[in-house]
């Protein structure tokens, strides 16, 4: 367990991602081994309009999320390293879930390093890389 880990208070289980200009929101809900990624700000998981990911193969210290804003004709594209897509209930003409893979099948940041992109280790209290702001939300 990292010294910077937020597992003690588990704030990472409900968080908002934004570009630095605050023009968009992505809400992240993590319930046990499932993660919901939802466009916009939400207090609760909606019935539709989300990505559902299986997190059983994701290491706590490598729980990486990468996002690009307004790129390639999409409002945003997102990846979650080592997560497995269970269900995509997003409008795929506006939002893209895509994880680039390296030569040996490992997740890479390829396609997520442009000026309008960023990345975070969601369970770590570290400064995000690039054009991304992370806000943890306390459960109410």
Strand % is: 35-45%
Unreliable spans: 1-8
Average pLDDT over all residues? 87
Distance between the termini: 27 Å
Radius of gyration: 14 Å
Total number of β-strand segments?
A: 11
Q: What topology, given as strand order, has the largest sheet?
A: 7-4-3-2-1-11
Helix percent reads under 10%
Q: Outline, from the CA principal axes?
A: globular
Number of domains: 1
Major sheet: 6 strands, antiparallel
What letter string, H or E per element, gives the SSE order?
A: EEEEEEEEEEE
Q: Note the total helix count.
A: 0
| Helix-and-strand structural type | mainly beta
Textual characterization of the structure:
- The chain is mainly beta and 140 residues long.
- The protein has one domain (11-136).
- Helix content is 0%, strand content 40%.
- It has no helices and eleven strands.
- The protein has strands at residues 14-18, 26-31, 34-39, 50-54, 64-71, 74-80, 84-88, 95-97, 117-121, 129-130, 133-136.
- The strands form two sheets. It has a six-stranded antiparallel beta sheet, with no helix packed on it. Strands 8-6-5-9-10 form a five-stranded mixed beta sheet, with no helix packed on it.
- The chain is globular.
Summary, kept brief:
The chain is mostly beta strands and 140 residues long. It contains no helices and 11 strands.
Q: What descriptive keywords fit this protein?
A:
six-stranded antiparallel sheet; 140 residues; 11 strands; mainly beta
């Amino acid at each position: 367990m990292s010294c910077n880990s937020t597992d003690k208070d588990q704030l990472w289980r409900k968080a908002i991602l934004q570009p630095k200009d605050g023009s968009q929101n992505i809400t992240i809900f993590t319930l046990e081994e499932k993660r919901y990624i939802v466009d916009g700000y939400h207090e609760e998981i909606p019935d539709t309009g989300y990505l559902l990911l299986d997190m059983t193969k994701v290491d706590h210290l490598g729980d990486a999320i990468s996002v690009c804003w307004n790129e390639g004709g999409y409002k945003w594209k997102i990846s979650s390293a080592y997560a497995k897509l269970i269900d995509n209930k997003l409008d795929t003409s506006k939002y893209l879930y895509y994880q680039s893979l390296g030569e040996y099948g490992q997740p890479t940041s390829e396609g997520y390093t442009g000026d309008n992109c960023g990345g975070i280790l969601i369970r770590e209290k570290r400064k995000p890389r690039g054009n991304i702001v992370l806000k943890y939300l306390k459960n109410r």
